[in-house]
Write a structure and sequence with these properties.
This protein is of the alpha+beta class. It contains four helices and 13 strands. A six-stranded mixed sheet has the order 1-5-6-4-3-2. Strands 8-9-10-13 form a four-stranded antiparallel sheet, with helices on one face. Strands 7-11-12 form a three-stranded antiparallel sheet, with helices on one face. β8 and β9 form a beta hairpin. α1 packs across α2 and α1 packs antiparallel against α3. It is globular, with a radius of gyration of 19 Å.
């Protein structure tokens, strides 16, 4: 009998979240390492390639090496199409929402997006992301796919509810609507479209822009 039989579910869940965050960090670190090596080689040759192009090539190679590449046609099998926004196309399957990210809010950088996801998971663990795969058109575009628990029977939270929730987390409002800070992190785009309230009144931040101050 395993030693974890009598462990609280919350502890097992936390370990799973920690393991996933380490996995995301490892992917980001490996992509960064490979980009540095690639750029070093380019210094003696071709030097007109944009950093994002290098990153995309390397990420595609990495994805195919590790069985993390999903053809663009397979994306439609993830689930029923859900609401799409500026950054994500979504697909819903049972209790999971898949988000196909176009990198628009990350200036085309996969590494920047992975780091933002890690910050989200740290601040808003109840809506933590897990990495699923990469997709895109081979050789020309790439999009990371993440999974997130679906908040059922939810509606957009009001600005007052959002501010109250963030205050409970130790964040103060700023003059900009939907932007908060605690002196260590700045979080913005916390508008009703990105923050949900379920039938029991609990608040969930499902998407946010975050930076370390």
């Amino acid at each position: 009998m395993g030693n974890d039989v009598f462990e609280p579910i919350s502890q097992r869940s936390r370990r799973a979240e920690d393991a996933e965050n380490r996995r995301i960090q490892e992917i980001a670190d490996e992509l960064y390492r490979r980009c540095c090596l690639y750029e070093e080689k380019l210094r003696e040759g071709q030097n007109n390639v944009r950093p994002s192009e290098i990153e995309h090539r390397i990420a595609e190679d990495y994805a195919k090496e590790h069985g993390l590449w999903l053809s663009i046609n397979e994306v439609f099998n993830l689930g029923a199409p859900g609401p799409s926004g500026n950054e994500n196309d979504t697909y819903v399957s049972n209790d999971i929402i898949f988000k196909v990210n176009n990198l628009l809010n990350s200036r085309g950088s996969i590494i920047q997006l992975l780091n933002k996801v890690l910050l989200h998971n740290f601040l808003f663990s109840e809506t933590a992301y897990t990495f699923h795969a990469f997709t895109g058109f081979s050789g020309s575009s790439i999009m990371p796919i993440f999974k997130q628990s679906l908040i059922k029977d939810a509606m957009p939270a009001t600005p007052i509810e959002i501010a109250t929730y963030m205050a409970a987390l130790g964040f103060s409002s700023t003059p900009t609507n939907g932007r908060f800070t605690n002196g260590e992190f700045e979080v913005w785009d916390l508008l009703p479209r990105n923050v949900l309230k379920d039938s029991e009144g609990d608040i969930f931040v499902i998407d946010a822009e975050i930076k370390v101050l």
